[in-house]
Amino acid sequence: MYTPAPDTFLLAECAFKYRGAWALEIGIGSGAVAESLAANFKNVAGTDIDLASLAYCRGRNKNLMLVCCDAASAFGNVKFDLVVANPPYLPDDDEKDASVHGGPTGVETTIRFVKSALPLLSTRGAMLVIVSSRADQSALDAFLTEKKLKKKVIKEKKLFFERLAVVELTS
Ligand SMILES: C[S@@+](CC[C@H](N)C(=O)[O-])C[C@H]1O[C@@H](n2cnc3c(N)ncnc32)[C@H](O)[C@@H]1O
After folding, report:
1. 86: DSSP letter
2. Residue 84 in 3-state DSSP?
3. Atom of ligand 1 nearest to the CA of 85
4. 153: phi > 0 → left, psi -120 to 50 → alpha, else beta; which?
5. Model confidence at 94, in pLDDT bands (50, 70, 90)?
6. Is 90 exceeded by the pLDDT of residue 110?
7. Ligand 1 within 6 A of 129 CB?
């Protein structure tokens, strides 16, 4: 399971500023960000491919709706006011770890998460995603342009080894 780290806390802080009826976290990990969503959303769902993470989250908060699936692929008939994700964003290396490695340039899983969330966003819905300077953002930017999504940087944090940002995506 992914141990909460500065990227987790940055996303949780930003997510706490939103409110509504339905929120989803893709790649819930320890549930720290979902807990922050639970303060202001009536219903909070979370997905992960890691069963141990989901079991941990179930012990932490019984009100979270937890699904083991790829990205948001389990959902079809619900619209979310907010979808958040701190995707695995490091470029792959020889020993791939699905909790941190996000594809050859680091953004492939991020694109997969956004693609999966887009049909589930309510009319005024938004998605918050963590991006890092350690990944090559060009394929993600091209994808956002192709989908005509608006991208706004909500908050940035400079660490000694990377620069993190929370970006808000809306249509
Ligand atoms: C960087 S961790 C973030 C965990 C947590 N959201 C946080 O901020 O601490 C990425 C999470 O995404 C999950 N994940 C990776 N690939 C996934 C996929 N295809 N679908 C769903 N979850 C995935 C990992 O298991 C991991 O829990």
Report:
1. -
2. strand
3. 6
4. beta
5. confident
6. yes
7. no
Record the tokens describing residue 50, joined without a space.
């890691």
Phi, psi values for residue 42, rounded to 5°: -70, -40
- Tens-place pLDDT, residues 33-87: 999 999 999 999 999 999 999 999 999 999 999 999 999 999 998 999 999 999 9
Closest CA to ligand 1's atom 6? 28
Q: Which residue has the tokens 């998460």?
A: 113
The Cα 90–Cα 105 span in angstroms is 8
What span, in angstroms and rounded, lies between the C-alpha atoms of 152 and 49? Answer: 28
Strands 20-26, 80-85: pairing kind: parallel
Q: Is the CB of 74 under 6 A from ligand 1?
A: no
What size, in residues, is the chain? 171
| Residue 167, token pair as written in the block | 């970006």
Q: Which of 49, 54, 107 to mutate to test the pocket of ligand 1 (most atoms within 8 A of CB)?
A: 49
Whether residue 85 has its Cβ less than 6 Å from ligand 1? no
Q: Bridge partners of 67?
A: 47
User: Can you list the domains of the chain with their CATH numbers?
Assistant: 6-170 (3.40.50.150)
